[in-house]
Every structure is written in structure tokens, then in C-alpha cells.
Backbone:
């Protein structure tokens, strides 16, 4: 089974410093859903892992988060894409949970749910903590320059093996080309 793990805000949809607090504020980055469809066609199962501390901060509740994710799933389906599951951490840093990235808890939950080893599984994020969380469990980190990506790149300190791409569509171009090269 081929698996890929994506961050949500700044990777699939435009990020906001004010948080994505409602379905209306959830707006896909052009080409991201089509890129997920191409992954599906190439046999990838696509899972999202997202920190949503806006819940702990009281900015929105779980019902609203579900509505946002319903919009995500519907938009994905309209683009011919299928997202298998969305794992989220509702905590703030003060909660000291095991799931908030850069901790690897969400990714370990994904490994358990899909019964896979995460070694070599691509993980895509726009923040350092996405890449650190993936690196800790053996994922291959991909930084995108959408969302907070430009700022993440300039701060540096990326995990070893991180490659940098313009956006999710460019990551998918790269992954599918690597697969085609390997098959040739
Ligand atoms: Mg992000
Ligand atoms: Zn958590």
C-alpha cells in the first residue's frame, strides 16, 4: 500500500494567521485537489494530519471543524480526489499532548489505523513542525512554499533529506516522475 501524509492549512488550502474558523474561510490552493486526484490515480491513499489548536483556544468547535472537513471532502470529490482520513490535534501547546506536531502521535495513529510502517512514506508540510514530526517516524519530508513555506525555508533548520517544492502539485509531479523513472 502506498500512503502519503499531508498537512492541511498552507498545503491543501490557503492558511490564515487568524485560523480557518468556518467552512467559508476554507479555500483550496489552486491545483491542490487535482494533485491529490493524481496521487489517487497512481495508487496512493491520502491522509491528512493537522494541528487545530483553534479548538483549544475556543475559536471554533468540533461541529464547525467537521463542517470544514465536509467542505474539504466535497471539494475533493468534485475534483475526482479522495482523502481517506483526516487526523487532527485539537490541543494547544499548553495541553502537552502527544498528537500536536512536532510530536509524532498523529502519525503513529495513522500507522496503526492503516497498519503500515511509515518508513519512506512522503509527508508534505509548510511548517517545520510538520517535517519534524514526519522525520521522527521515518517519513520523507517535503516542504512546500505555499502557506508558511517561504518563511519556514528562510528560518532553515529543516530535517535532513527535506526537499523543497513550489506547492503540492509540484511535489506530486516529483513523486510521480520518481515512480515512473523507477519503473522504466
Ligand atoms: Mg500548515
Ligand atoms: Zn493533541
Residues:
Amino acid at each position: 500500500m502506498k500512503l502519503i501524509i499531508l498537512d492541511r492549512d498552507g498545503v491543501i488550502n490557503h492558511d490564515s494567521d487568524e485560523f480557518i474558523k468556518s467552512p467559508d474561510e476554507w479555500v483550496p490552493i489552486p491545483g491542490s485537489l487535482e494533485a491529490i486526484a493524481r496521487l489517487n490515480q497512481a495508487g496512493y491513499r491520502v491522509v491528512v494530519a493537522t494541528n487545530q489548536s483553534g479548538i483549544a483556544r475556543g475559536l471554533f468547535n468540533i461541529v464547525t471543524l467537521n463542517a470544514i472537513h465536509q467542505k474539504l471532502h466535497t471539494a475533493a470529490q468534485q475534483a475526482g480526489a479522495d482523502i481517506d482520513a483526516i487526523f487532527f490535534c485539537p490541543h494547544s501547546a499548553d495541553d502537552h499532548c502527544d498528537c500536536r506536531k512536532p510530536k509524532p502521535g498523529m502519525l503513529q495513529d495513522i500507522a496503526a489505523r492503516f497498519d503500515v510502517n511509515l518508513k519512506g512514506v512522503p509527508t508534505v508540510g509548510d511548517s517545520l513542525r510538520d517535517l519534524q514530526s514526519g522525520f521522527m517516524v521515518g517519513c520523507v519530508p517535503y516542504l512546500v512554499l505555499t502557506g508558511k513555506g517561504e518563511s519556514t525555508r528562510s528560518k532553515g533548520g529543516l530535517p535532513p533529506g527535506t526537499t523543497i517544492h513550489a506547492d503540492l502539485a509540484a511535489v506530486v509531479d516529483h513523486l510521480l516522475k520518481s515512480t515512473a523513472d523507477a519503473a522504466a
Q: What stands out?
A: The radius of gyration is 15 Å. The first helix runs from residue 32 to 41. The chain has one domain: 2-183. Residues 69 and 86 are 8 Å apart (CA to CA).
